[in-house]
Amino acid sequence: MTDETPGTKGAEDDTEKEGVAGFMARAKEQAQTAGKKMGESGAFEPLEHVAESFAANTMSEGRLFDMADALSDYRLNEVDVTDTTCGYCAVGCRFDIYSKDGEVLGVRPNPEKAPINGISTCVKGKFGYKYADSEDRLTQPLVKEDGEFREASWEEALDRVADGLKEIQDEYGRNGLSLVSSSKTTNEANYLMQKFARQVLRTNNIDNCNRLCHSPTVAGLSQTVGFGAGSVGTDALENTDCYLITGSNTTEAHPVLATRIKQNVKDDDADMFVFDPRKIQMAQFATQYTRIKPGYDTVWINGLIRHVIENDLHDEEFVEERTVGFEEVKEGVEKFTPEYVEEKAGVPPEELKRAAETIAEADSCTFCWTLGLTEHSHGTENIVSMANLALVTGHVGTEKSGLAPFRGQNNVQGGGGDMGPIPGNFPGYQKVTNDDAREKFEEAYGVDHLPDDEGYTITEQFLAADRGEIRGMFIQGENVVYSEPNVSHAGEILDDLEFLAVQDIFLTDSAKHADVVLPANAPVETNGTYTSSTRHVQLVKRAIDPPGNAKPDWVITQELAERFGYEWGFRNPSEIMDEINDLTPIYGGITHERLETEGSIPWPCWDEDHPGTPHLYTEEFNTDDGKAHMFPTDVSGPVEADMEDEAFPLAMTTGRVLYQYHTGTMTNREPGIRSYTDELFVEINPDTAADLGVSDGQVVEITSRKGSITALAQVTERTGGDVVFVPMHYFGRGDVANELTDEEHLDPQAHVPEYKVTDVRVAPTGEGERTEAQKAGAEGDD
Ligand SMILES: Nc1nc2c(c(=O)[nH]1)N[C@H]1C(S)=C(S)[C@@H](COP(=O)(O)OP(=O)(O)OC[C@H]3O[C@@H](n4cnc5c(=O)[nH]c(N)nc54)[C@H](O)[C@@H]3O)O[C@H]1N2
Ligand SMILES: Nc1nc2c(c(=O)[nH]1)N[C@H]1C(S)=C(S)[C@@H](COP(=O)(O)OP(=O)(O)OC[C@H]3O[C@@H](n4cnc5c(=O)[nH]c(N)nc54)[C@H](O)[C@@H]3O)O[C@H]1N2
Ligand code: SF4
Ligand SMILES: [Mo]
């Protein structure tokens, strides 16, 4: 067993380092001491997680980063201070950025302007800025000639993109093209991307990473309660009496929310039930942790509902007055007996009973989930089941009760969903198939006919390109060659396209496949708004100047539209928001002027006089009849589990670690973060490792039906016997988990890939830890 992540370097290496590197070294040293103490008290915790908890808890106090030191070389009036919103994840932390000459010197939360995070931030939001002034930022457009990139003027590059897109449409029709928009960019930039797709290119083939993430949440909640978003504000997360947390590694993926939840559990005795295949850090604080078999969530959730109804613990009045479909659900859950749930999902009956009873009897309960529920070939059914449980127990629509999906990218709620860069929706979830909605946008956009056929989702775009249907793509802020399923195939598909343009802040490995690369501004260089996981729309401001000739995403899209004869004439993001206000009822009253004075406004906010809506569904649900609609769900396991095959005896699940962000374009450029985790690893249970003859720190080969990768074994009891966990991140060299995942078996409604369960086998390669030479040999080129 190890107490360290393989690839984690010792603290002694880092003691000389300053800034982030120094912080990480000190955090780790202190964590080591804390770890020893915990070891002595018999509650040994892997070092990584002590450090993680340590970081999450102490960063807020600012003790580890001495702002005075960072600023001591300057007089305060020489330093710029900008209040802005974090560009990493969707928690939506706000803080002041202190900067000088294009460099971020420090970050300090200002609780008065930070409704969600107060005085807290996590390590990425506080220190993750080296990427912005890194030397390899894109500063000038690039065009490919004879297979090589050369710098080009904006004029030339944009002309080439416009010509490339026009040629494809001339030859293959308007749907021969597809666009990927970016949840890293602002609401205003995403609004323009969907406008560009629909008004200019007349296609609904536009999607974004929301698809790979919470699209089942949007689909499941739209059907049941109405809005494709969480129903609660931060109040419920901080003050509820009970939590059900599943498929969310909260301390690593949403650290600031985790801190809030842990505080409520510790200080106010809130109950917390954690259901997860891995014994994640939240388990340590839980009333009860239940290890589940990945991919069978409908089974245990239906089991909970059955127990609640069977014992008359459901909220009869709420069910009667505010919901429809109870009888169907009651009938549907009958087969999910405790014995059946144990057999299928691995949940012991007494744990099922305790959770069901505590949740049902609690005065309030908040249901929290993330990708462990969504990234399945039946993700939407999981979400419908979760909504059913919340509704049957009557825990929706109060200040302390409700549905809390923790969203992912900084602006996936707003930019990835609300703004409509998705195949079936205009902004504000107005359907492209709805005649009234189409007419409204046709009139606003001054065109006779907008397309009424739903476009392709992101993974379908790749499948359609593979069939030769899509021949050109425009990808904004998405590193698809690492984040899509079955990436080797995705890379080949990009190469086969007749035209590809990529808009990013780096020449990513995806951008290398492009004909034209457009340099964009990074989140810290951007003006506009992001929308948090709790639906709070908040301002983002330029804290440092962008490098070279990089431009704001929205400007690039506007200049591209001009080349097709559309003069939008927006002078700033605030003017774009005015158009959003006019066309998107849920954003009707959210103007930049108001945000400047009010700080943040949770949608729906119907008009300028409306205060915004922190808690949804207090009176009625957002459905035609105002009631919540429950639907029974069935047993739906992972697709590959049905392909019983002894060659692949283990289930691989993939996900995140605290110190990395996705494909690493930002975090891999952070020396402190690199010094912490810089190598792909795989968590293997000690019994499984012993059976396989694998020891900690060894290089193993992991093989699925799609391919093989190597990773360092981390032998740990975090994972159960039949499950291995591989981070989804690209660590800057070597392999990625997505070489093993499958792109064909998508959720039928939301089209999310089954990232959370892939059948694999693991075998030792006979190698010990990688040598420096091997590491260099495996070096990627990102
Ligand atoms: N540090 C960091 N934070 C991030 C990100 C990042 O890259 N790095 N990314 C952001 C983004 S875009 C997102 S979407 C969020 C994601 O946030 P999370 O979804 O919390 O992150 P993951 O690590 O993908 O996995 C979630 C959990 O699902 C569990 N799980 C696996 N299979 C199953 C299953 O079948 N059922 C259940 N119930 N659980 C299962 C895993 O063990 C894990 O604990 O994080 C955001 N925050
Ligand atoms: N196996 C597996 N695969 C997964 C997941 C998983 O759990 N398991 N999770 C999925 C999920 S939830 C997500 S969200 C995706 C994430 O997948 P991606 O979105 O592809 O990951 P990122 O690395 O965040 O890529 C964002 C890109 O945007 C660029 N960028 C950053 N800021 C800006 C900006 O302001 N403007 C522009 N134009 N570009 C910018 C970055 O350099 C980077 O290239 O991965 C998905 N893939
Ligand atoms: S929790 Fe998310 S929003 Fe907050 S500082 Fe960390 S990465 Fe940024
Ligand atoms: Mo995500």
* CATH level-3 fold name of the largest domain: Rossmann fold
CATH class of the largest domain: Alpha Beta
**Strands, count:** 28
Low-confidence runs: 1-28, 30-66, 776-782
- Rg over CA atoms: 25 Å
* Structural category: alpha/beta
Protein name: Formate dehydrogenase major subunit
InterPro entries: Asp_de-COase-like_dom_sf, Formate_Dh-H_N, Formate_DH_asu, MoPterin_dinucl-bd_dom, Mopterin_OxRdtase, Mopterin_OxRdtase_4Fe-4S_dom, MopterinOxRdtase_cofactor_BS, Prok_molybdopt-oxidoreductase
Family: Belongs to the prokaryotic molybdopterin-containing oxidoreductase family.
Pfam families: Molybdop_Fe4S4, Molybdopterin, Molydop_binding
Present the secondary structure layout.
Blueprint: H1 19-40, H2 47-58, H3 67-71, E1 80-85, E2 94-100, E3 103-108, H4 123-127, E4 142-145, E5 148-151, H5 154-172, E6 177-180, H6 187-200, E7 206-207, H7 215-224, H8 234-239, E8 242-246, H9 250-253, H10 255-268, E9 271-276, E10 288-291, H11 297-310, H12 316-322, E11 323-324, H13 326-332, H14 338-345, H15 349-361, E12 366-369, H16 371-374, H17 379-392, E13 402-405, H18 414-418, E14 425-426, E15 430-431, H19 435-445, H20 458-466, E16 472-476, H21 480-483, H22 487-496, E17 499-504, E18 516-519, E19 528-531, E20 536-540, H23 553-562, H24 573-583, H25 592-598, E21 600-602, E22 628-629, E23 650-655, H26 671-674, E24 681-684, H27 686-692, E25 699-703, E26 708-715, E27 723-727, E28 758-767, H28 772-777
Parallel strand pairs: 6-7, 6-16, 8-9, 8-12, 9-10, 11-22, 12-13, 16-17, 17-18, 23-27, 24-26
Antiparallel strand pairs: 1-2, 2-3, 4-5, 4-18, 14-15, 19-20, 20-21, 23-28, 25-26, 25-28
Helix pairs in contact: 1-2, 5-23, 6-23, 6-24, 7-17, 11-14, 11-15, 11-17
Bound molecules: ligand MGD (2 copies), iron/sulfur cluster and molybdenum atom.
